[in-house]
Write a structure and sequence with these properties.
alpha/beta; Spore Coat Polysaccharide Biosynthesis Protein SpsA, Chain A; 4-stranded parallel β-sheet; two-stranded antiparallel ribbon; 6 helices; 6 strands; 33% helix; globular
Length: 173
């Protein structure tokens, strides 16, 4: 006997695939919060990359998205993307900026593997998170959760399957 529900969620035709929604939705109030730190920098695909990531993250409950720009100051592009007026509706976001130090910037002739891109932005995101927690600025976020949190580095030029966030939950358990 075929289970229609399982068949619907796993059927594939012409390379399309329908997957079940993340099980994080089953009992989201008791889940740990996931702090996703995303380094980003100005480039032609930045808006498209951030928008795609945003639309994925909108389906993840108990999420705090921390976007750290590699720039001297915050840009209007990222500010607008994270604003509540935009179609990207993630309730908890932080928009930071931290310019990569000169010694860690890639030169025009440097191979991309020579230096780690986004490392200083990730570290700045972690520092901001630790300082905000120490100052009690995250208490309202954490008090409503029965578990702690997990930090996940989510680059804006990657694509994520929602099941990865189910796996993140296993870190706490």
């Amino acid at each position: 006997m075929v289970n229609l529900q399982d068949d619907l969620f796993h059927q594939s035709s012409n390379s399309s695939h329908i997957t079940k929604p993340s099980s994080r939705h089953d009992n989201s109030s008791s889940l740990p919060i996931i702090y996703i730190i995303t380094p980003t920098y100005a480039r032609p695909t930045q808006k498209a990359d951030l928008t795609r990531l945003c639309y994925t993250l909108m389906h993840v409950p108990q999420l705090y998205w921390i976007v750290v720009e590699d720039a001297e100051k915050k840009t209007v592009l990222v500010e607008r993307l994270l604003s509540r007026e935009n179609s990207c509706k993630i309730p908890l976001t932080a928009h930071l900026n931290f310019r990569t130090s000169e010694k860690l910037r890639l030169g025009s002739k440097d191979p991309t593997w020579r230096k780690c891109r986004g490392a200083e932005q990730r570290n700045h995101g972690i520092s901001w998170l630790a300082e905000s927690a120490a100052k009690g600025l995250l208490d309202s976020v954490r008090n409503s959760r029965s578990h702690g949190g997990v930090v996940y580095f989510g680059d804006d030029d990657n694509t994520y399957d929602l099941e990865v966030f189910d796996e993140v939950d296993l870190i706490i358990q």
